[in-house]
Specification:
The longest helix has 17 residues. The protein is globular. It is mainly α. The chain has a two-stranded antiparallel ribbon with strand order 1-2. It starts with 7 loop residues before the first strand and ends in a 5-residue tail after the last helix. Helix 1 crosses helix 3 and helix 2 crosses helix 3.
């Protein structure tokens, strides 16, 4: 029987990252969900395997409630400080690395 292959590690700060190239799961999920990039494009952009992208997405979906709660907290903070949701999302999208 084959042993499972690990793709995700939790760093000392509690941030989940790919073992290959140490890319944050949140960055991969953001590019996939909000920038509408394919798994293949994300893998190419970060220089990781497509399997790393899918492993990061699996980790994201396994922990979606936690990620969604953090997003709600971020949005409440943004709203409290006078930034619209659309402006905040535009700022987030602008920070995402562009692929050609």
């Amino acid at each position: 029987m084959n042993n499972p292959v690990e793709h995700i590690q939790i760093d000392e700060d509690g941030v989940p990252r790919t073992i290959n190239k140490n890319v944050k799961v949140k960055m991969i999920a953001s590019k996939f969900l909000y920038a509408d990039e394919s798994a293949e494009d994300i893998a190419e952009h970060y220089g990781i395997a497509v399997s790393d992208v899918y492993a990061a997405l699996a980790y994201y979906y396994d922990n979606k409630d936690e990620y969604d709660e953090r997003e709600r907290e971020n949005m409440a903070y943004v709203k409290k400080h006078g930034i619209s949701t659309e402006e905040h999302l535009a700022q987030l999208r602008a920070r995402l690395p562009k692929t050609e």
